[in-house]
Amino acid sequence: MSKDSNAEGVVPAGNGAKVMYELLGGTVGGVLQVLVGHPLDTVKVRMQGSTQYRSAWHCLSSSVKTNGVRSLYNGMSSPLVMAGINNSVIFSVNGQMKRFVGGMSGKSPGELGKIEQLAAAWMTAPIYALTLTPTELVKSRLQFASERTSVIKALRDCVRQDGVLGLYRGYTATVGTRLVGLPFYFVTYDTTKKYIRNSFETHTSFSETTISQLTSMTAGGLAGMAFWTGNFPVDTIRTRVMTSSTPMSILLACKTIWQDGGVLAFYRGYSAAILRAFPANAVAFYGVEMTLKAFNQQDF
Fold first, then answer.
1. What are phi and psi of 71, to 5 degrees?
2. What is the pTM of this model?
3. How far apart are the first and last CA of the chain?
4. What is the DSSP letter of 137?
5. Contacts of 162 by beta carbon, 8 Å cutoff, 6+ apart
6. pLDDT at res. 70
7. 74 and 142 in contact (C-beta within 8 Å)?
8. Which terminus of the chain, N or C, has less C-beta within 10 A?
9. Cβ–Cβ contacts within 10 Å for residue 117, how many?
C-alpha cells in the first residue's frame, strides 16, 4: 500500500477532497455490499431474534417455503437507500480519524501501527452509529416481520410507538457492536492487505490492477469475517433490543438470550453471518478501493 501521497500515479488532494472521494467510494461499496449480502443477513437477523430455527439452512428453507424467495429481501430497500450514506460515513470518518491520529504522531494513514488504527476505529464508532442505528432498526424489523410491509410503514410504526427518538432505540448497543467490531474490521483489512501486497512483490507476472483487485477483495472478505467473529454476541444483543415489541434494556436482552440457550444462544445465526461476510465485504472494499483508484487517490 502506498504510504506517500506523492507516490507515482497518486494525485495529491486536500483534506476536503479526500473526504469527498471516501464518501463516494463508501457509497459504491455500500450498494455492492447490500446487493450481495442481504439474503443471508435476513437469515442472521431472524435467527438472532427467534428460537424457532435449528440452523441457518432451516431458517433459509423455512423462510422460502413459507413466504417465498422474495421474503429474503425483506427490508432491503432501507439499507440499499442508506447503504451509500452508512458506508460513506464509516469510510470517510475512519479515513479522517486515521489522518487525525497520524497527524498527532507525524505519520501518514498508511504508516499507522495497530494501536493507532485501533484508536481511529474506536473514534469512528459513535459517529457511524448515528446514521447506522435508524437504518438497522427499520431493517431488522422488516426482516423479522412475517408479512411483507414497506419501509415507510415500518418507520411510521417506530415513530408512533416510541416517538422520533425511538428511531435511536438500540443506539448504545449499536455503538457497542462497532466499538468491538471496527478494530477487527479495519486492523484485519490493513494487516492482510500489506501481507498480500508484500507476497506479490516477487510475482511480476501479475499486473498492478490485478494485484490491487485481488488484494482488496481478499483482505476485505477476511476483514468482514473477523468483524463478525469478534462482534457477534454484541450484535445479537443489539438485534434483540431493536426487534423487541416493547422497549428492552441491554441487561434484559442479555438475560433473555441467556435463558434461551446459554452462551451458544449469543451465536445463533453466526453461520449465516460468516457465509455472508466474505463476499459482502469483499465487494464493499473493492468498491471503495476501485473508486479511489479511479480518481488517482491513495489506497484506503
1. -65, -25
2. 0.79
3. 9
4. H
5. 169, 247
6. 76
7. yes
8. N
9. 24
Type and span of the H or E element at 213 = helix 208-243
Q: How far apart are CA 194 and CA 109, in angstroms?
A: 13
Query: Cα 287 to chain center, whole Å?
Result: 14
Question: ∠273-118-1 over CA atoms, to 5°?
Answer: 85
Residue 143 class from Cβ within 10 Å (0-12 exposed, 13-18 middle, 19+ buried)? Answer: buried
Neighbours of 23 (CB within 10 A): 19
Q: Which three cell numbers stand for residue 289?
A: 478501493
- Rounded to 5 degrees, φ, ψ at 267 are -110, 15
The rounded distance, in Å, linking the Cα atoms of 132 and 52 is 28
Residues contacting residue 112 through CB under 8 Å, at least 6 positions apart: 98, 101, 102, 105, 120, 190
Residues 6+ apart with CB under 8 A from 209: none
Candidates 19, 145, 157; CA nearest to 73 is 145
pLDDT at 3: 43
What would the pLDDT profile of 54-102 be if each residue is shown by its tens digit? 787 888 888 888 878 877 777 676 667 767 778 889 999 999 999 999 9
* DSSP assignment letter at 148: -
CA distance 286 to 264: 33
Q: State whether residue 28 is helix, strand or coil.
A: helix
Positions in the chain whose pLDDT score sits under 50: 1-8
Q: How far apart are the C-alpha atoms of 138 and 128, rounded to whole Å?
A: 16
Residue 90, all three cell numbers = 464509516
Phi, psi of 17 (to 5 degrees): -65, -40
What is d(CA 270, CA 253) in angstroms, rounded to the nearest whole number? 18
207 Cβ neighbours under 8 A, 6+ residues apart: none
DSSP, collapsed to helix, strand or coil, labels residue 4 as: coil
